[in-house]
Design brief:
Helix content of chain A: 55-70%
Oligomer: homodimer
Order of helices and strands of chain A: HHHHHHHHH
Low-confidence stretches of chain A: 1-6
Amino acid sequence: MAAARIRSDETRERIARAARRLFAEHGYERTTIRAVAGEAGIDPSMVMRYFGSKEGLFAAVSSFDLRLPDLAALPREAVGRALVRHFLTRWEQGDDGLVVLLRAASSNEEARARMREIFASQVLPRIAGIAEDEAALRAELIASQILGLAFCRFVLRLPHLSGPDAEAVVERVGSVVQFHLFGAAR
Amino acid sequence: MAAARIRSDETRERIARAARRLFAEHGYERTTIRAVAGEAGIDPSMVMRYFGSKEGLFAAVSSFDLRLPDLAALPREAVGRALVRHFLTRWEQGDDGLVVLLRAASSNEEARARMREIFASQVLPRIAGIAEDEAALRAELIASQILGLAFCRFVLRLPHLSGPDAEAVVERVGSVVQFHLFGAAR
DNA sequence: GTCTATAATTCGATAGAC
DNA sequence: GTCTATCGAATTATAGAC
């Protein structure tokens, strides 16, 4: 029990952390095994040994849980703002699983598939639980606004959307998500 | 006058067209000079000869004019829908300059710079011309919704947002853009 | 103007010593 | 469990023949 670990879970975790950071910053293609190893302070061949391949490494660090709040338990008029605040808070904490996917999706089909899977399994059911009609369309519209915000914030870095916790952004994007959730067509 | 061209502008245009299509479909890194040449039906070295480098080729095909309508001439309540319809119509016509930038921006700083430049020179002034206050914030919020829509439509291909001209999408995203333009904070 | 041939890198992946 | 050494493939880019 008190003996040292035989398998180095710590090394594995160091590699994963470095990979997450680099995938989120440079996308899939421009992140190299060598760079990940360099940032983790170990040899490139260790990355292969622990994760099998670059694809395996990406798969290991790109699946995550959005940990959405229980929307059905919230007052109806607070849902939009709560959703936006949830994402901004996660991003602020440096939890960048979604950014990894967002950056990689442009050139990587596996990243797109994983993003669709996360949408289908974690977002759509929550929306369907509270929307009265057209839940699928509403969920996709919400995804478009949230992902667009992430894109402008982390990729484009537009100044007014990139602050640590812009209250005006929560307010306005929250209202918009609220409309996508419950608003009538006209 | 009636003599044949010495320089082949047609070849140049064929290369550019192929490059636009491939950059829009695969992003910057996964688009190779070889593939562009193959699609254009010429030799890879010709691409270098005409555009100097891969970066030069990208620069040549990634600058474009959004051709935004004159928002100030529209009835105030029609601006949001008009903007969304404008983008959907352009996309439908296969005019994919924005998609080229969107896909390349994830891993290419030049693409990001160009996108910010297009935003600053073509979008922001128009918005500033009709918004009463906080034009910069409002313009960025609109960009986030439009770019998010493009991302979900062309990259993720979410089914309800990918149709040729979903009237429901124009309607709903139009309302949202309208809110970003004129809506009060609370 | 167009193509052939190839230089110069860079990267993912493997084999094997310690 | 970690590292050295290297292979093989793919890519951008160049030099030069026709």
